[in-house]
Specification:
With 309 residues, the protein is an alpha/beta fold. The chain is built from ten helices and 13 strands. Strand 2, helix 2 and strand 3 form a beta-alpha-beta unit. Helix 1 crosses helix 8, helix 3 crosses helix 5 and helix 5 packs across helix 6.
């Protein structure tokens, strides 16, 4: 069954949105709008300990300032706890998850060799003998999904992709200590509920895709198409973060920079226009092309920032 095109914007309120975030949001928005599709907005706030006061409102203002609109009301991820819990219960019923009492230190100690190129050492399977019912009486445990295989997928931007999940962390957490949903489960449940058909995000999340495909398959959800685009880096060759002064969207707005100037810079970096010039998001819709976006990272220089003023 063909589904109506639907993209999504999913800012996290753990800090201010910078031009790297803005570039990815712009690509995601244009991809959906160029197909005549809808766009949903979700605030990914389940990492409660890292959320910053006022960051949700600021992210919404940033998107509005850039001219990136959305359909319907914003979804607040933390308000969807019942849906996340229902998905966990289904995974438990299928015996696809098990309770894990290992700490990060336990995992690091048990790992035969650390994989520094990945986000954590490979989980050694210490608790994988357990069944869902074994959670009874346990304290301070998470739920891990059993990695039975590593689904290959065709990335809209990068082409054919395969990540060996056994080498990239193994069985992974879908529900955290403290009885809270983890990122991998929550985003799948929420994207499926919103009818999202395409997900555009930074290539630092590439290894999340086969994990999420396992969850889509387990829960019987139709999987979206994924596209992972290069991140924006500073002149220090590190990806943009709060340490890079002057790159926050809110700061540029406060300094009187016009959104059309920012969009012109981002559009030129994606090859949609030949020179940096003021342009609106709506004007970019018919210009959108995946094939013009460079495969290498985009380096944002101080000169580029100065030219925005």
């Amino acid at each position: 069954m063909n589904r109506s095109p639907c993209g999504r914007l999913a800012p996290s309120p753990t800090g201010a949105q910078h031009l790297g975030n803005a570039r990815t949001y712009l690509i995601a928005w244009l991809s959906a709008r160029s197909l005549g599709g809808s766009v949903s907005l979700r605030i990914e706030d389940i990492d409660i300990g890292r959320n910053k006061p006022g960051a949700t409102e600021q992210a919404i203002r940033d998107l509005q300032w850039l001219g990136l609109d959305w359909d319907g009301e914003p979804v607040i991820q933390s308000e969807r706890y019942p849906e996340h819990l229902a998905a966990l219960e289904e995974l438990k019923r299928l015996e696809l998850v098990y309770p894990c009492t290992c700490t990060r230190a336990d995992i690091a100690l048990a790992a035969s060799a650390p994989h520094l190129e990945h986000e954590s050492p490979t989980y050694p399977g210490t608790c994988s003998h357990r069944r869902a019912a074994d959670a009874e009486g346990l304290k301070d445990f998470s739920w891990r999904l059993r990695v039975t295989d590593s689904p290959a997928f065709t990335d809209r931007f990068l082409g054919e992709q395969y990540v060996d999940l056994q080498l990239a962390g193994g069985d992974f957490i879908v529900w955290r200590v403290g009885n809270l949903p983890a990122y991998q489960l929550a985003v799948v449940v929420d994207d499926a509920a919103a009818g999202v058909t395409e997900i555009v995000r930074g290539d630092d999340l590439l290894s999340s895709t086969p994990r999420q495909l396992l969850i889509y398959r387990a829960l019987g959800y139709p999987a979206p198409q994924f596209a992972h685009v290069p991140l924006v880096h500073g002149e220090d060759d590190r990806r943009l973060a709060k340490r890079h002064n002057g790159t926050r969207v809110s700061d540029l707005r406060a300094e009187g920079v016009k959104p059309e100037a920012v969009l012109g810079l981002l559009a030129r970096s994606c090859g949609w226009i030949d020179e940096v010039r003021p342009i609106t998001a709506e004007e970019l819709v018919p210009m959108f092309r995946w094939e013009t976006i460079p495969r290498e990272k985009f380096t944002l220089t101080r000169e580029m920032l100065n030219d925005l003023v």
